[in-house]
Amino acid sequence: MRRRSSMRGNRLTLASNQVDRGSPPVARRVVDYWCAADHRSSPAFATDIDVPEEWPCRVCGAPAVLQRGAAPAASRQRIFPRTPYEFLMMRRTVEDGERVLAEAIAAMHKGDYPHPGAGRRP
Length: 122
Ligand SMILES: [Zn+2]
Known about the structure:
The chain is an alpha+beta fold. It has helices at 9-12, 84-91, 94-110, and strands spanning 28-30, 33-34, 40-41, 44-46, 54-56, 63-65.
């Protein structure tokens, strides 16, 4: 018969034997936090600790405070900071664009640029 290891895989998933079974749960208190969007979050804390001044809102994640209406307005983060058009407009003004376009048209009329369909076979 094979000898069984005392440390089997399924034993690792069981609850630790260091839990105080049967003892009363730690006394808790529920504290209300309010974010700038007026969402209420109510986490529970042990009664023997100082509650934090701020708590992340359970709805929007913005900082929530103990006093309703006193939360700082959350700065809204844009997922896409800039569009390609905005990047273009950061680099060039409309006048720059007109000048570049005029140069490109002049070069095309002069024959510096190949026709877009040139060299393509049907
Ligand atoms: Zn919120």
